[in-house]
Amino acid sequence: MIFVGEQPGDYEDKAGHPFVGPAGRMFDKALAEARLDREKVYVTNAVKHFKWKPMGKRRKHERPLASEMNACFPWLESEAEAVRPQILVCLGATAAQSVLKKKVAIQKERGTFQESPLAPATFVTVHPSSIYRHPEKSQQELEYRRFVDDMKLVRAKLAELEKKRVRLAG
User: Fold this and answer.
1) DSSP 59-128
2) For helices 137-169 and 22-33, angle between their N-to-C axes, nearest 10 degrees
3) CATH superfamily of the 2-169 domain
4) Residue of 87, 77, 75 lying closest to 120 (CA atoms)
5) Measured in whole angstroms, how far is the alpha carbon of residue 61 from the centre of its chain?
6) Measured between alpha carbons, how far is 166 from 162 in angstroms, rounded to an integer?
7) Which of 18, 155, 17 lies closest to 92, judged by CA?
8) How do the domains of the chain map onto residue ranges?
């Protein structure tokens, strides 16, 4: 299984690894609740560089352009060829647009499995960082619960694909 985010954030850029900041901790917690082992999944980003602008002492991320997604796609394609995932999970609109090669309305397509050239099943959901953008704690908790439910759908689909693979092999 591959999880694809947008691009490295400030923490990830400094650490050299994806999903290690606050969104990464939320991602890890959701995977654990859904009984998906982070050690058994591959995590990457659609865009490989951190695009940012200075904001005081902080580096504020900027949305990647389609040309930047397209320039980085061969790396993502190579990662998928090496991992050969049964499921690819797009975390957010940028990841979904990069993988599916179309504009994606996350709230409309969230929770759906779609076809892509990178995996037999491609799932669309929100990026964990989007949960933090809700102003009220109660809304954050609700969105987090929905994200965990999305991860449970992914786990169920993985089990379904594994059963099918075993039947075909046997």
Assistant:
1) EEE-PPPHHHHHHHHHHHHHHHHHH--SEEEEESHHHHHHHHTS---HHHHTTEEEEETTEEEEEEE--T
2) 50
3) Uracil-DNA glycosylase-like domain (3.40.470.10)
4) 87
5) 17
6) 6
7) 18
8) 2-169
pTM exceeding the 0.85 threshold for the entire prediction = yes
Whether the pLDDT of residue 86 is over 80: the answer is: yes
Please check whether residue 2 is in contact with residue 89, taking contact to mean a CB–CB distance below 8 angstroms.
yes
Cα–Cα distance between 166 and 27 in angstroms, integer?
29
pLDDT digits 0-9 by tens, 70-79: 999 999 999 9
- Residue 24 per-residue DSSP state: H
Q: Is 4 within 8 Å of 89 (Cβ atoms)? A: yes
The residue written with tokens 């930047």 in the block is 68
